Amino acid sequence: MLLMAAGCLGLVLNGPAALAQVSVVPTAKPDIPSAAPAAPAAEDPLGPLIGGEGAATDLLADQPAEPALDPLLEGLAPDGGVAAVPYAPSSLPETGMPGPQQNLPVYLVARLSDGGPALTDGVAWRVYSDRPGDKGKLELVATAKGGDADFRLAPGNYLVHTGYGFAGRTTRITVGGQPTSQTVLLNAGGMKLDAEFAGHQPIKTGKVVFDIYEREFDSRGERRIVARNIAPGAIVRLNADTYHVVSRYGSVNATVRADIHVEPGKLTEATVYHNAARVTLKLVNQPGGEAIANTAWSILTPGGDVVAEGNGAFPSFVLANGEYQVFARNNAAIYSREFNVVTGRHGEVEVIAQEPLSN
User: Fold this and answer.
1) CA 156 – CA 176 distance, rounded (Å)
2) Would you state the torsion angle of the CA atoms of residues 64, 69, 71, 75, taken in this order, to the nearest 10 degrees?
């Protein structure tokens, strides 16, 4: 179900596009018994990773330093963690017998969905012990970044958090007496957002950004923010779910809302339509005259609610369609006029500095 705010003519979903299908079983490393031949690396089906190493990070204005942890692991102390140990053979070269090191190889692969290709970049792995340590918190045992991950872990149970963009999942693994190979299905997809004026006119003036929230409200009646300040055209990786998306054109009142669903292993593209325009205010002595500096501005709705305020000779605002009244204060004199905003019709609003309002 898609919910549109007033003033939005519609929202277009262009797909979701299905991804290539490959085997769900991860390829074991060559020295793991019964290893299958390595498959050629597949390209990321969702495109360049937002916030990933070597990715188009300019598409995301406010990205997390690390993928968000699963709620199960929130608040865990990062101290005590060690870097992932490179993969090495588990037997002595001369005898073929197990070496004195008890740690065993663990090979992990991440996929967006069952049957989807293995992810080759942008995955953040964190391995935790499954029991609290001396400080009462789970200990971070190992970390890795990239595609698949190789760890050397002692026999036992572990919690593995797999992060990919804003998507993530926590799974439990058991390391026994032999090398372990396991696939993590993230159950995640992508969302690509765009914005236009009603009537499919491109927005060339001003800045549009998107904020993505969880759809449901918490106990305080608020939605939790998932990702903010997303630029049009950026691909955002998310857990499969329905999200509440807020599109902001400018910083005043040109806002569109919609609920958008993300499916596992698929890219959902959505376009929202804004009914708004950019206006520049000028206080002049006569029509077409030079703007008067040191002017304070207030924009109100017909009901008297303040929409925006500013100072200067040429302040500009992006406003939603509708009727407004503007007040200009200069040298203790106040001038006013009414004006309308029409979708995509950017322009100037001149206030004539004649017949000031009486105090």
Assistant:
1) 7
2) -90
pLDDT for res 60: 30
DSSP conformation letters of 99-155: -S---EEEEEEEESSTTPPBP-SSEEEEEEEEEE-TTSSEEEEEEEEESSEEEEE-S
Q: What's the chain's average pLDDT?
A: 80
User: What single DSSP character describes residue 176?
Assistant: -
Give me the percent of the chain exceeding a pLDDT of 70.
71
Q: Mark which of 185, 206, 224 sits at the end of a domain.
A: 185
- pLDDT band, very low/low/confident/very high, at 22 (cuts 50, 70, 90): very low
Which range among 87-101, 171-185, 324-338 shows the weakest confidence by mean pLDDT? 87-101
**How far from chain centre, in Å, is Cα 216?**
17
The letter for the amino acid at 275 is N
Q: How far apart are alpha carbons 97 and 289 in whole angstroms?
A: 92
Is residue 347 within 8 A of residue 339, CB to CB? The reply is no
Sign of the Cα pseudo-torsion (66, 67, 71, 72, in order): negative
Query: What is the per-residue pLDDT across 43-70, written as a single tens digit (0 to 9) for each?
Result: 565 665 443 332 333 233 333 434 444 4
Strand 167-175 to 180-185 pairing: unpaired
The CATH number linked to 225 is: 2.60.40.1120
Q: Which letter does DSSP use for residue 98 in this model?
A: B
- CA pair distance 197, 206, nearest whole angstrom: 12
Q: Burial, 224: exposed, middle or buried (Cβ in 10 Å; 0-12, 13-18, 19+)?
A: exposed
The answer to the question of residue 219 being in a domain is yes
Q: Identity (one letter) of the amino acid at 247?
A: S
Spatial separation of the C-alpha atoms in residues 76 and 137, rounded to whole Å: 6
Please say whether the beta carbons of 329 and 296 come within 8 A.
yes
Which pTM was predicted?
A: 0.74
* DSSP one-letter code for 83: P
Domain count, the chain: 3
Sign of CA dihedral 287, 291, 293, 295: positive
Are 321 and 219 contained in the same domain? Answer: no
The DSSP output letter for 72 is G
Residue 190, judged by CB atoms within 10 A of its CB (0-12, 13-18, 19+), counts as buried
